[in-house]
Amino acid sequence: MKRSIPLAGLVTVLAALLCAPLTHAATKKKAPSEPTTTMKGYAAPGTPAKLNKVFVTKFGSPKAKRVLVLIPGTSGGAGNFTLIARDIVKRVPGLAVWSIDRRSQALEDTSMFKKLLAGKATEQQTIDYYLGWIGSSSTAKHYQPLNDADYGFARDWGLKVSLEDIRVVVKAAKKGGRKVLLGGHSLGGSTVTAYSVWDFDGQPGWKDLSGLVLIDGGLAGAGSATVPTLADEQAALAKQQAASPWLDLLKVGLPWATGVFAELGAIPARLHPQEESKVASIALLPPSFKPAFPVTNRAQLGFAFDETTSPAALGLIHVRAGKLGAPADGKPADWINGEVTPIENVALGFGQEPTNGAEWYFPTRLSFDLGGMAGLEPNDVTAFLGLRPKYAKDVKLPVFAIQTSLSQGRLKASTASFVAMNKSKLTFVDASTTNSHLDPLLAAPKTSAFLKNVIPWLKKNGK
User: Fold this and answer.
1) What's residue 2's pLDDT?
2) Where are the alpha helices (DSSP H) in 17-130?
3) Which of 25, 55, 224, 416 has its CB 3.0 to 4.6 Å from that of 101, i.e. a possible disulfide?
4) Percent of the chain, pLDDT > 70?
């Protein structure tokens, strides 16, 4: 029987940026100014103490009386929320936004990207450092990928570890009597639902919260989810435990390559947006992301992410951003903005340091466990996996959910079944005809279906 997998999370493959000022409150060369805090995370069994950490980027006033905590999706990072967080705190008085980076972000070596942003390294030096050394001895000093044998403990970085880390953040946000809303994108939305029904040693997760925000992701309640069998889960877990701890999204044998390609495209494009892209010449980049002719950095981004040119099977990285122009007069083809998301907005989320939008080492166990949570009630599968759903019938919270084209109706069905189990009140927005999966995070404020609907909801709910 096929495993039930929650909506796929945010995935980054490559990015580039146009030279015009950003649509949101940022300029092309401005680094994120919001503070990032390191918090002591859950003491996961077998994990070295130095890695039991969670990272939080804070937007808005520290005197705010409410906090919206946001969780990224698969292979996503806190930088994914930069643009919407800045808009939300500007437009909802008394609300702060905290975006989470999972503990796996500590495993990244972004040192050369920081130098590139600071003008202390060239684009070619950066490419050589991260990828150019593969199959070549010409680059003496280069990136050293993690050895899976040294990180076997990460095969157990599943839902319990993630939720315990998130609860550390939620508790910190609650200090001083503040109210906390919990939100997430894609797999992050599934994690939010799981948190609300989780049994934290007798304490219901939902009682920590004042509301839930599900951005194209969530888990279905009883009656509408395909619950995997115990035998299927036992066999699947055995395979997961024998494989690499990390998701290899690009299937090139380098789990970290997805995050590296994201920043290799985004950061040079922020600095030199109309120069010819070098990303497409990298041999390891899958052919489906390589245009047939030379393009600018911003056009490379659009080609990779826009639904019209990005591979159809990768709807989880799609935006509706415009179209690829044609080469002329010997110059590389450029990108023509249009639709709901300016292409420069896509780049900011993936071209930031120290808070980027990519997760180089995404733990596969997290997706696995979320698949085992189907139905949101205790069963032999949840017992086998050490999962603790208990309070799905008790949740009483306002819930906001928005669906894009990727959901194909699944989020509407899953949220309806979830609130049918309890006393929660659902506000549902169907943006499936106008938005692709990343548009709720990256669309311009004037064309954002998410901001248009969540701002008034936040003003009225979760107080």
Assistant:
1) 34
2) 82-91, 111-117, 123-127
3) 55
4) 92
Q: Enumerate the β-bridge partners of residue 184.
A: 71, 214
Could you give the C-alpha distances from 196 to 15, 100, 192, 415, in angstroms and in order?
Answer: 34, 17, 6, 13
pLDDT per residue as tens digits for the range 364-400: 999 999 999 989 999 999 999 999 999 999 999 999 9
Q: % helix / strand / coil in the chain, to the nearest 5? A: 40, 15, 45
* Nearest-angstrom CA–CA distance, 203 and 192: 16
Tell me the one-letter amino acid at 50: K
Q: Which CATH architecture is the domain 36-109+144-460 placed in?
A: 3-Layer(aba) Sandwich (3.40)
| HSE-up (13 A, CA, CB side) for residue 168 | 21
pLDDT score recorded for residue 360: 96
Q: Cα(161)–Cα(242) distance, rounded to whole angstroms?
A: 20
The pLDDT value recorded for residue 137 is 73
Q: What is the distance between the alpha carbons of residues 174 and 208, in angstroms, rounded to a whole number? A: 8
pLDDT of 4 over the 90 cut: no
Core vs surface per residue 217-243: b (16+ CB within 10 A) or e: bbbbbbebbebbeeebbeebbeebeee
Overall average pLDDT of the 12-34 stretch: 39
Has residue 11 got a pLDDT over 60? Answer: no
The per-residue pLDDT for range 232-246, each reduced to its tens digit, is: 999 999 999 999 999
Query: How far is Cα 245 from Cα 255, in angstroms, rounded to an integer?
Result: 9
Check residue 32 and give its pLDDT. Answer: 53
Q: Which of 73, 97, 69 is nearest to 83 (CA)?
A: 97
Q: Are 448 and 315 in contact (CB under 8 A)?
A: no
Each domain of the chain, given as residue ranges in start order, spans 36-109+144-460
β-strand pairing of 95-101 with 179-185: unpaired
Task: Single out the residue of 267, 76, 264 nearest to residue 162, CA to CA.
Answer: 76
